[in-house]
Amino acid sequence: MYEISFSDGTIRYIRMETSREGYAQIGLVEDFTSVMLERQRMEHERDYDALTGLYNRRAFQRESEALFEHSEVLGHAALLMIDLDNLKRTNDTFGHDWGDAYIRQAGQCFISSVPAKTLCARISGDEFNLLFYGYQSQEEIRALLQNLSLAVSNTALELPSGRKLPLRLSGGVSWYPENSTDLSTLKKYADFAMYQVKKAEKGYITEFDLELFTKNAKETEMRRLFHKMLNEELFTYYFQPIVSATDGSIYAYEALMRGNLPALTRPDQILQLAHEEECLHEIERLTMFLSAKSYATFLSTHQIRGDELLFVNSIASQYMNHDEAVAYVEQYSFLQDRIVIEITEEDSPDLTALLKKREMPGFSGVFALDDYGSGYSNEKTLLELAPAYIKLDLSIIRDIDSDPDKQQIVENIVSYAHQRGMKIIAEGLETPAELLKVLELDVDLLQGYFLAKPSAVPKPVSAESVAVIERFRKHLA
């Protein structure tokens, strides 16, 4: 249908159709009433959802935007986003015709349960938007939402069998102007609130929670940064000396992971995200390869002697696959007999993974049990892991010089380990008094800030700590 204005001010309408032979046919429409009815039909099809009779997405957007240009009309307003909870099951069980009937029933419930001025729309298959506006307070709207929830709970679709299928929905509400005065932001907030319902138990309407949204946004950003870190291998490995208790020389280095992004540096953060995102294997692979790469650089630049062991933190449940192990052998075969696998995950060791680590081509098969005494390590773990090294947790070492109970614990562990050919490492040493006491308790190896802090390039052992060790040995002699 086309409208044509003539120079004399008259308006005529023409209809263009295609004949059966494919020729265009133009006819003058004389009946103005039929023209107007046709126009109304076209406008209705443009703006309304055919199934429910509610506004469609485009009309809802247009009408909402028009309202948001007049804050005095909006007053207090609420945007309600709804998802129907039983639609997929209805479609799968009874067919799409009954799914359509379920949607239609929902639309009728909404129309009959809210004030006439409320904007109601079907946005997509099972998604609806309702905009309540022009109220004096949130409490007025909350009363309307309560009425709607009650109406929904009393609505059901009667199925062919005679059984009634209850109408069930999940919804999220955002508030104007309390949450935002911007329509797109309110949509984002209402959608977030609805998602929280669907993620939980479904079947109710909840209001937007800014604190929860902020927390979720932060977590989402952290996950994005974590995957960026993995994809671009944005890791640095710091190295901390493990020192001989006999003469203060460097016996080994422990490789400690650090993230290279300002918001994501701590190993505990990285490992937690790796666990949540199911990326523990990628962390294991990167740790093995990148720590070895740094160590090889120190060797080639003569920054270390070359006979020190390398303690690498490993995840108990993870191990390199065949292709990764082959690549590691090709690049770092000269280093493999110096590797000590340090188990750090706070779970019982995975025996299959431990066996795979032990049998990896070229590796020494030597383990260290980290954080012993922190709560998860026990005698059963010692028997399953059979480590060559036991690292005493810093919670035991802290203030050991003044705590007889801790001294007794270390004395017992040292006795147990030495009878079985294991070496004891006291980690977390921060004072001369702590160092002196663990020397008296006959530990084998030492680690901590008092001796040397972790750094990207290995540092020498502090002269003060070496002096403590030398004085102790001279005293024994």
Automatic annotation (TrEMBL):
EAL domain boundaries: 215-468
InterPro entries, per the entry: Cyclic-di-GMP_PDE-like, EAL_dom, EAL_sf, GGDEF_dom, Nucleotide_cyclase, Rev_trsase/Diguanyl_cyclase
Record domain GGDEF: where: 75-210
PROSITE patterns: EAL, GGDEF
Signal peptide positions (record): none
Gene3D superfamilies reported for this sequence: 3.30.70.270, EAL domain
Protein name per the record: Bifunctional diguanylate cyclase/phosphodiesterase
UniProt source species: Fusicatenibacter saccharivorans
